[in-house]
Design goal:
heterotrimer; A mainly alpha (304); B alpha/beta (254); C mainly alpha (271); B: alpha/beta; six-stranded mixed sheet; three-stranded antiparallel sheet; 10 helices; 9 strands; 23% strand; C: 271 residues; MetI-like fold; 2 domains; 0% strand
């Protein structure tokens, strides 16, 4: 075999070709590229910070092994014997399991409603801004200004927006929806404008050539061709906003199932009720994930 | 004695029949072209031979050795070292250099640790350089594979198969992603490997005319069945019609 | 011939009518759900529109750090540093576990279907329990500390990263792994020689993204578990010291933008 290859090489003119490097008598096979160096340094930095973090983290004197064992036990209780206390859901002590479940579903509905309202409000605003931010539809200055403002809005965590608006509008749905809409706008504007930018330049050109005005182009060409991707992005954001709404209920008094979770964990210390609530949230979230995965398969917006 | 023996090979994907009772034998040093419409089982057949896909039933023997379908994990690894494979999409690790990709062909011979860390012997490296020279790639030894053209990538793929020192090379539509110029070059290299190195070539092709030009023997598949097995000279228009059915008309017109 | 005077074929007319009806049905569906949601939650669009200008003008007069806020800066920065560390730690630790699970779960590298289903199911459950719920659970067992925050972020990141890594592995290395199987390479060789070099840059990019997300989530987790920068904010907020609270917000904004900038430029260089 080897001799046959050599025969071939001789025909090509010589033994092994000369375009290779030798270091310490060994043939070099890999190449150190800037990308590789960057990758390694990033890895090194991340690992260093992580190890440093573990050495210095504040555990408030908790007995870690015991706490871990306790956590596993709690998880077992949460998932094997969940139950809700009737009075925590506004029912009388004598209420049966099913009425309590229904009233818990209603509380879950509040969370879903908050998520829906902020997705809708944020989506409408994002649609307008997305049109203004798409590079093929406006000039760079408008596009960059909007993207800059949105980057700032996104840098403030949602919970802080909700708390800020709670000062002026009181703790509750109004502050929660406004605050949650902010990040929704940031996320969806980027997604929408990118799907607008995917529109073939030629289509816009053709319509412009036929004398169409900007609004005509938007409603006759841009919207129809991006509507499916807009809808699936919006649903994906709705899925995210559900989790955010749970968090806002817990951390910013926005109501809904998140608030009940906060009460069970922070005041009643009732692990079985935490299990009950977590399972309800989990079921809804899993259901939405399945729908989102289907939509994603259909319309394939890039990951996330 | 034939080098490769396939007997009653059958493959089901769940309930869908992909290969139906296929039997044939290949002599050492043959150049065999496999043709047929898309979904006729060509790709499945080629992948069954080195068990990238496990067939449902039948027998595949190389050099009268043990049936490949009955081999255990380590036996199949060993058998694969003797079978090279070339893919339609080259299947290279794009971010590694050309020579690193070629040396991957040696992994089947190496122990776990040295393979995992990519430690190759000087002999293996010299062999890789030799093969790269043979394929006209000696100037690209340290290029990252994502910087190569399609034709060059496929030559790296061939080089990876050659450093395995295989007795047989399986090619799964090696030129389907290439322009006509690069396609011809790749087919010429395959012919050279067959004629000068005496390695058996089994090649899946989409283009009937290319198959007729290069292969001495043609296997025609339709709907999972082997419907033609004979020399390429006897592949008449009627035969092509039999293999391709409705698609044949367009093929012949082209 | 006058193009406009000829009457349209019936199908064409119907097509446009149907399209319009469909549009209005969807629109009214949305409006009904929105109205129902507003009733259920007590949300009012009018209140919201009135609140926005009021709050924004209030922000400009009250959310400006004063001298006292600057005196508190060192303490704030110290907590901010804890928060950054917490985010990096949780992202990196989660990435290590996620890589293992992704190898089990991806189509390319799964050892068998049992492990694949197990890995995907674990990740999915993890991901779908909101970070707030994780925080509340660990608050019960580990008490009020940064470590509790770390655990909450770790579990929420782990599920997300596992899914992201599975997709990355399947996208970047399915073909090269097949080639290595064909030459007779073993499992660990396939992972180290094909999966690692192909998927690593993309995976690091996901970890950087996770750090960005976690810095924002850390504020929320901090509010719930009494740790890091979130706790700092809640102290000032609850004692109505808004000018100091605004200092906290500003530092968070700076850090988030800075980390976004760093990770974007790193991403450009490694991909």
């Amino acid at each position: 075999m080897s001799s046959m290859i050599s025969a071939g090489t001789t025909a090509a003119g010589g033994a092994i070709p000369q375009h290779h490097h030798v270091r310490k008598g060994r043939i070099v096979i890999s190449k150190v590229t800037p990308a590789k160096l960057w990758l390694r340094s990033v890895l090194a930095v991340l690992v260093f910070f992580t190890l440093y973090g573990f050495l210095t983290i504040d555990t408030a004197g908790a007995d870690l092994p015991a706490s871990f064992v306790q956590t596993v036990r709690y998880f077992w209780i949460m998932f094997t014997s969940p139950r809700a206390v009737a009075s925590h859901f506004g029912m009388s002590q004598s209420a049966g399991g099913f009425p309590v479940f229904l009233s818990a579903v209603k509380v879950l509905g509040i969370t879903l409603a908050l998520a829906f309202l902020s997705t809708l409000t944020g989506g409408v605003v994002a649609l307008v801004l997305g049109l203004l931010a798409a590079r093929n539809l406006t000039n760079d200055r408008i596009s960059n200004t909007i993207k800059g403002i949105v980057a700032f809005i996104r840098a403030v965590p949602t919970v802080l927006w909700v708390l800020i608006f709670a000062i002026g509008a009181g703790l509750g749905a109004v502050a929660a929806v406004i605050g949650m809409s902010f990040h929704t706008v940031g996320h969806l504007m980027k997604a929408y404008s990118e799907s607008f930018e995917e529109l073939d330049e030629g289509v816009i050109e053709a319509l412009r050539a036929s004398g169409a005005k900007w609004p005509h182009i938007i409603f006759q060409a841009v919207m129809p061709s991006s509507i499916t991707s807009i809808l699936s992005w919006t649903f994906i954001r709705f899925e995210i906003n559900f989790a955010v709404a749970v968090a806002m209920g817990a951390a910013a008094g926005a109501g809904g199932i998140g608030f009940n979770l906060f009460m069970s964990a922070g005041y009643f210390f009732d692990i079985r009720e935490i299990g009950y609530i977590t399972l309800m949230i989990l079921v809804v979230a899993l259901l939405m994930e399945v729908i989102a995965a289907r939509l994603k398969k259909h319309y394939q917006p890039d990951a996330l | 004695m034939p080098q490769l023996h396939v007997k009653n090979l059958t493959k089901y994907y769940k309930d869908v029949l992909a290969l139906s009772d296929v039997s044939f034998a290949v002599e050492k040093g043959d150049f065999v072209g496999i043709i047929g419409p898309s979904g006729s089982g060509k790709t499945t057949l080629v992948r069954c031979i080195n068990r990238l896909i496990t067939a449902t039933g039948g027998e595949i023997c190389l050099n009268n050795d043990k049936n490949i379908l009955e081999m255990n994990r380590s036996e199949i690894r060993k058998a694969r070292t003797g079978i090279g494979m070339i893919f339609q999409h080259y299947n290279l690790v794009d971010r590694l250099t050309v020579i690193e990709n070629v040396l991957h062909g040696r992994l089947g011979y190496k122990n776990t640790v040295s393979g995992v860390f990519g430690h190759y012997t000087e002999g293996e490296k010299r062999k890789a350089l030799e093969v790269l020279g043979l394929l006209g790639l000696d100037e690209h030894v340290y290029r990252r594979c994502d910087q190569l053209s399609g034709g060059q990538k496929q030559r790296v793929g061939i080089a990876r198969a050659l450093v395995q020192e295989p007795e047989i090379i399986l090619c799964d539509e090696p030129i389907s992603s290439l322009d006509p110029g690069s396609s011809k070059k790749i087919m010429d290299y395959l012919r050279k490997i067959q004629s000068e190195l005496g390695i058996t070539i089994l090649v899946n092709l989409h283009q009937v005319d290319v198959a007729r030009t290069y292969a001495k023997r043609i296997l025609g598949f339709n709907n999972g069945k082997l419907v033609y097995d004979g020399p390429s000279e006897l592949l008449t228009t009627e035969r092509i019609q039999e293999i391709y059915g409705k698609e044949a008309h367009e093929l012949i017109l082209n | 011939m006058n193009l406009y005077s000829t009457s349209l074929p019936k199908e064409t007319v119907w097509y446009f009518i149907r399209k319009r009806i469909g549009f209005f049905l969807v629109l009214s569906g949305f409006i009904i759900i929105a109205a129902g949601s507003s009733r259920l939650t007590g949300f009012s669009l009018i209140d919201a529109f009135q609140a926005i200008p009021r709050v924004v003008s209030w922000m400009f007069s009250n959310l400006i750090p004063d001298k006292r806020a600057f005196e508190r800066l060192p303490r704030i920065l110290e907590k901010l540093w804890d928060t950054i560390l917490m985010s990096v730690m949780s992202s990196v630790t989660a990435a290590v576990f996620a890589f293992g699970f992704a190898l089990l779960g991806s189509v390319t590298t799964k050892p068998n279907n049992f492990f694949a289903v197990f890995s995907r199911a674990t990740a999915s459950i993890n991901r779908n329990i909101p970070v707030a719920a994780w925080a509340m659970i660990f608050l019960l067992t580990f008490g009020q500390s940064s470590f509790t925050g770390f655990l909450a972020l770790f579990f929420a990141s782990f599920g997300f990263l596992t899914r992201a890594f599975i997709e990355t592995i399947d996208e970047t290395s399915i073909s090269s792994v097949e080639a290595l199987r064909a030459v007779g390479a073993g499992y660990s060789q396939q992972v180290m020689q094909a999966v690692m070099p192909s998927a690593m840059p993309q995976m690091i990019s996901w970890v950087l993204y996770m750090i960005e997300v976690n810095i924002r989530s850390a504020t929320l987790v901090g509010l719930l578990t009494g740790s890091g920068i979130g706790f700092m904010f809640s102290i000032y907020y609850k004692s109505l010291q808004y000018k100091s609270a605004s200092m906290v917000i500003l530092t968070i904004v700076v850090v988030v933008l800075l980390i976004e900038y760093i990770s974007n430029s790193v991403r450009r260089r490694i991909l």
